[in-house]
Amino acid sequence: MENELDISKIFWKLKKKIARDKMLAQICTKIYNSIGRRFNSTQECEFPGSHPVTLLKKNFEDLNKRDYYVCEKSDGVRLMLNYLPENREYMYFLDRKNEFYAHPIKFKNDRTLNHTLFDGELFEIKDDDRKYLMYAIYDAVIFDGKYIGNLSLNQRLTYAMKFVNEYIEKPEVLGITIKKMSKSYHCYEIYKQTSQQKHKNDGLIFTPVDEPYVPGRCNILFKWKPAELNTVDLKLKLIPGTKYTYELLCWSKSSEMMVYDIFIDKEGVEMDEKLCLEKMNENANTSNSTKLPQNQSFPEISDNILQDGIQSQLNCVKNTLDLDHIIKKRKTEDLNINDTFSDVRNDLTYDDKQKFTANIQNISAKFISKNSERYDGLIGEFWYDPSAEKIDLVDNSFVNGAWILHKIRIDKTSPNSYKVVSNIMLSIYESLSIDVLAENVGKIYKNWKEREELKRKDMEISDFFRK
């Protein structure tokens, strides 16, 4: 499992709630009032950034009929850059938990700037033996006190370039740049170039050129990821009476948390199994207890000691969950559960199994729970592996297709909606690979050039009548 970039160790976090809420209200008021959506400072403001939707085959129609820019999707932390003139020495980065992080800013030649807000992402670049942070701006919402979210993407990015090139000195620790954008028919080339880059990336973003900036979910802003990186964010909730076993929660249409699936932290089980083995061998070194041979595993640890076997674990889950309600909620019967326990190795031979098992039982209660609840209440980023084996909670059979934990999202406090998760599953089933995208490039190019020619003719006509 990968680690998330922890920005709290990089920037100074604004801890004063009054100052934080005031700054957030300023942003939300400016954005929402500018697009005709009522907002006042007493409302609770959600993260105001624009959220892309998963690219599906039906969205090819949008890519064919509209001008889109495409860029690589960096695997970093989503942050909005906020600058206020009353805090001239700092710029503030807003994350998806609505927390602000300060970083020094210095202007060129004593230039002044009013309220400014950009959208972008922070990621780590590894250049030979050197590592450094880069913040890439890919959109602009407010510049010098003026709302510019209603302008075209070209115009918005022009203001961002002006900020980087004309207004600020280069920060000492943090690099600030503009995200490189290309016309949408270059998507295949952009993706192939990602392997040569010095930072992690996990897909492509398609942004409409002539559409305004949309706070919240934007149905014409698309993200594409290869199947192996197509992830969802789900909340882990420990099932009462169990260890390592979690409900995976998402938002329902009625804005309530619903169970989407079940996840068992097999890695946590294996970590605690190793801890038990180490403790067992420590005891064996200081007593006449039986010691397990080095690099040897013992099946009873997984199958008899941890949770008293797989059947009791499943029964505990079943007794805790209202399966009928969950199945009805999802309108399907594919609620599944991952296999917790290690494979039984029948070829293991050992003369003193009873003594070994007794020693494990004596220490397991003390040491086995170290990792058994470690993810409770956190947001996990999961990817779906169609070939991974799991256990169907309905009939206890082994089936293929399981959620694999990619990383814990320390930058998020809320999971995806059921619709988002369903769309991602649909994109996986559609097998929307880079080759499928490449097959559509010719049509995207042809339509782009036709629109370009029409615009050129319109300009000629306009110039004629202005003479």
From TrEMBL:
It is an enzyme of class 2 (transferase). Residues 51-225 form the mRNA capping enzyme adenylation domain. It is found in: Nucleus. Residues 319-437 form the mRNA capping enzyme C-terminal domain. GO terms for biological process: 7-methylguanosine mRNA capping. It catalyses: a 5'-end diphospho-ribonucleoside in mRNA + GTP + H(+) = a 5'-end (5'-triphosphoguanosine)-ribonucleoside in mRNA + diphosphate. InterPro entries: mRNA_cap_enzyme_adenylation, mRNA_cap_enzyme_C, mRNA_Capping_Enz/RNA_Phosphat, NA-bd_OB-fold. Its EC number is 2.7.7.50. It comes from Edhazardia aedis (strain USNM 41457) (Microsporidian parasite). One of its GO terms (cellular component) is nucleus. Keywords: GTP-binding, mRNA capping, mRNA processing, Nucleotide-binding, Nucleotidyltransferase, Nucleus, Transferase. Transmembrane segments: none annotated. One of its GO terms (molecular function) is ATP binding. This is mRNA guanylyltransferase.
